[in-house]
Amino acid sequence: MDQPAHPDHACGHDRAGLVARAERLCRERGLLFTPLRQRTLEVIAGETRPLGAYDIAERLSLPGRRVAAVSVYRALDFLTENGLVHRLASRNAFVPCDHSHSGGESAVFLICRACGAVDETTSAEIERGLNRTLARAGFRPASRIVEIEGECGACQEREGAEG
Amino acid sequence: MDQPAHPDHACGHDRAGLVARAERLCRERGLLFTPLRQRTLEVIAGETRPLGAYDIAERLSLPGRRVAAVSVYRALDFLTENGLVHRLASRNAFVPCDHSHSGGESAVFLICRACGAVDETTSAEIERGLNRTLARAGFRPASRIVEIEGECGACQEREGAEG
DNA sequence: TACCGTCCCGTTACACTGTAACAGGCGGGG
DNA sequence: CCCCGCCTGTTACAGTGTAACGGGACGGTA
C-alpha cells in the first residue's frame, strides 16, 4: 500500500496505486497487463472527469503513431471486466475504479453537471433495498447501474457566491 | 380514438390509457400533443421491449413518407420531459412510463437480458438510501438512474426447463 | 390585411459511439 | 519447426445524437 509522497500532480486519482493494483491483479489471474492497457488506465486515472473512448484514443496517439478507437474499446473491455475502471452509462464515458467498494457492494456514482467530477460511493441501505426489490421481483441481477446527475457541493457553493 | 374492449392485442402496455393521460396532461399544461408525438408514444407503448430512436423512426415511416430520426428525437425529448416515456441509459432505448411511481419516487428498471422485457418499479427503501447518500455527500440531484440488467423470473424458469 | 414571433417539423450535415471481420505479430507448447 | 491463442492494427460499417437552416402553421397585434 505504499503511497507516493506526492499522490498525483494535478490528477484527480491515484494513478500509481491503480497501476500497481492492476499489475498485481493480472499476475494473480494470469492476465496480460500490456502497454496499451496500462497506458489506457493511466490516461483515465490522470483525468478528473470521465473520458470517452475517442478522447482516450486521442490522448494515446502520438504524431506518427495513431491509436484507433477500436483498440481503446478492447482495452476498456479488459479494464472494466477486471474492475479497474467503470463505465458511466449516462455519459458513455469511463472513470477509474476507486475500489472503495471492496466488499462487493455495487457502486453509486454522483456525477456533477457543472464541473463534471464523479464521486464513487456505496451505501449499505441502497444495497439492501436493491436486493429486496430484486428478490421480490424474482429477478437475478447481472449488473447494477446507479448514477445520479446533479450538482456537487463545491459547485453549489460556487454558484451561490457568483449568482 | 375508440379503443377495442380488449386493452391491447399483443402489446405489453396500456396504449390507450397512456395516450389518454398524455392528452389530459397536454391540455392541463397548454402543450401540443401533435400527431408525431402521439404516434411516437403509440409506437413505444405498442412494444414489449425498449425501442431505439431509429427503430421508432422506421416504424413511423411509410413507403412514401419517411420520418427522420432527428424528428423522433425531438418527440422523445418532449415525451420524456413530460414523464410519458423513460430513456434507458444502459440501452439507449425508450420505454413507456408505467406511472406506478406517482408519488415522485424515482424509478427502478429491471431489464431482462434474455427476453428484453423491462419492469419499472419503485422502492421506498432505495429512495431513502439514495436520499441519505446524497445528503451525506452534499449533492443536489437532478436526475436519478437505477437500472438493473439480469434475468427475469420467467426466463430463469424457461432456462431451467430447457436445460 | 399585413406583420411578427413562436413552435413544430423536414432536411442536411456532421460528430460521437460501438462492433464485426480480417490480417499480422508474438509467445508458449507440441 | 508448426500450431494455437492472445493481442493489436486496419477497414468498414451500423447506431446514436446534435447543430443549423428553412418552411409552414398559428396566434396576437397594429
From TrEMBL, chains A, B:
Protein family according to the UniProt entry: Belongs to the Fur family.
Gene coding for it: zur
Domain of life: Bacteria
Keyword annotations: DNA-binding, Repressor, Transcription, Transcription regulation, Zinc
Originating organism: Methylobacterium isbiliense
PANTHER family per record: ZINC UPTAKE REGULATION PROTEIN
Keyword Zinc: yes
Protein name per UniProt: Zinc uptake regulation protein
